[in-house]
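#struct-pred
JK: can someone run the complex with magnesium ion? inputs below
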Amino acid sequence: MKLIQAIIRPENEKQVIAGLEKNGVKAFTRLDVLGRGRQKGLQVGAVRYEELAKVWLMVAVKDADLDHAVDAIKIGARTGNPGDGKIFVSLLVEARTIRTRSTDVG
Ligand SMILES: Nc1ncnc2c1ncn2[C@@H]1O[C@H](COP(=O)(O)OP(=O)(O)OP(=O)(O)O)[C@@H](O)[C@H]1O
Ligand SMILES: [Mg+2]
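RT: done, structure tokens with the ligand placed:
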């Protein structure tokens, strides 16, 4: 199992989630967050925005779904401009569904 954490533009969230769903990945957790990447925010005229609004998506997937899920995020989140976001993937040691006592992520 893998844990995907994606930081994306809020305006691209809907199409990312639709893309995940199309690939069979239905469950996720989202948070509104502030962050910055390598440009350290955004300069608009004399005003510097040091932290920009992003959406943090957390998706736990089976190994077999990883590539599809990452592709869906990449496609849905990309504009080609700085600030499109990041995708972090890590190993997920355990997932428990409380109701069913299943140890599967699905
Ligand atoms: N190294 C990092 N660690 C944790 N969060 C990060 C990191 N880099 C970026 N982020 C998060 O991702 C958001 C989007 O980052 P962003 O797309 O600007 O990355 P970037 O590396 O600067 O790429 P680009 O050059 O395309 O802008 C940031 O606002 C921040 O929340
Ligand atoms: Mg950036």
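RT: quick notes.
The pocket of magnesium ion (ligand 2) is lined by residues 37-39, 82-83 (CB under 6 Å).
The CA atoms of residues 74 and 80 lie 11 Å apart.
JK: thanks, will look after standup
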